[in-house]
Amino acid sequence: MDTHGREKSSVAFWSLCAAVMLTAFKGAVGIATGSLGILSEALHSGLDFVAAAITWACVKASGKPADQEHNFGHGKIENLSALAEAALLLITCAWIIWEAAQRLSGGHSEVSVGFWSFAVVLTSIAVDFTRSRALMRAAKKYRSQALEADALHFSTDILSSSVVLIGLVCSGFGWPAADSLAALGVAAIVIRVSWNLARRAVDELLDKAPKDVRSQIQEIIGKIDGVVKSHDLRVRSSGSEYEIDVNIHVDRSLSIVEAHDISERLENSIRARFGGCTISVHVEPD
After folding, report:
1. Calpha distance 177→162 (Å, rounded)
2. Sorting pLDDT into bands at 50, 70 and 90, what band is 23?
3. What is the pTM of this model?
4. Given pLDDT bands bounded at 50, 70 and 90, which one contains residue 55?
5. Which whole-number Å values give the CA distances from 148 to 90, 138, 142, 168, 184, in the listed order?
6. Long-range pairs for 90-94 at CB < 8 Å and ≥24 separation?
7. Max Cα separation, the chain?
8. pLDDT averaged over the chain?
9. Cβ distance 144 to 239 under 8 Å?
10. How far apart are CA 91 and CA 268, in angstroms?
11. Which of 8, 127, 146, 272 is the S-S candidate for 81 at Cβ 3.0 to 4.6 Å?
12. CA distance 5 to 10
């Protein structure tokens, strides 16, 4: 595994360790206090652990070079990781909504609000803030959808923990229904995030052209001396890299060497803008 792969794997591994710690802490406090809001957060963190484990494994696997069976590499594994994470989050939401509805319709369980109730939520917010920033930095640096999915996930965890915190405060002031309502708020936030993650992962798996990348490549082509025109530009994502195909027209009087020099300058300009790419330039006489 190269340096980039090791750094991505390291960030994913520490996110996995944080998920283990938060799941155990939230579970213990949720059981002790009877808070559905905290228990829903504990289950959420438990699935975060599964999702983080999947992300870690997929990030390591996606770094494998292309082989005879996978000619374009293993980058799509990251998209499958993001899709699996979205599915796990939706399972979490189903349980949270069912349990909250049961409590709201059949009476509220006693919620014990104390120091540990607030400590676990505040700790969760601090940990999620730290790891979401680290994951997003790595995601942007290496264009990793799996790490970006984790970063967005944990950013919304901060929001859901804040909702639970509000529910605990309201419960402490004698409004126990607030805990169940806070749990429903968590579910609503998670459903929205899950939907966005799933949609993006499916778009990548179906080779939808990355947003704004086509226009940027066309801009680059227009600045290359010797290119008369271009057509049939195709772009898709594969993990942290782009795969780009394009046909360009050059003056028919140019030699093969001169035409190749133009295509090489185009490839170098594209890589200078987007980093690692698999580029295929077909040169035609105008």
Report:
1. 17
2. confident
3. 0.59
4. confident
5. 18, 8, 10, 30, 25
6. 90/190, 90/191, 90/194, 91/47, 92/40, 92/43, 92/44, 92/47, 92/187, 92/190, 93/187, 93/190, 93/191, 93/194
7. 85
8. 77
9. yes
10. 45
11. 146
12. 9
